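U., I forgot to send this yesterday:
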Amino acid sequence: MAEAAKRTGKGAEKETEKEQNAVEQFMALEHSELVIPPNALGSSNRVRALALLANMTGGGSEDPDEIDYAAVLNGAADAVDWVARHAAKDKAAFEETMGGLPIDRIIEYTMAYLTAVGEL
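Result:
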């Protein structure tokens, strides 16, 4: 029984390291202060974040012929909107800041946030 507890503890430590890494990576990005920390989201929003991340990545397909790029971009737009509505500390400031960035940076920022949420 004690051995099982030790294994659980080690597994929990590894998960904590993984969580810290994802959150730290996001928090190192410019403008990370615009949103609440990923671990502050409620459970239903964490699940929604994962669904949005899946939509942004083409559902995990690696075959370019199977990816619907219009759907991926629509998923990215939905994800940016979701972050603005559910995670931004000040939606107007978030929108103003994101509006001044190139699209690839907006997508990178959003994916980093959703990835951090997904690894909690």
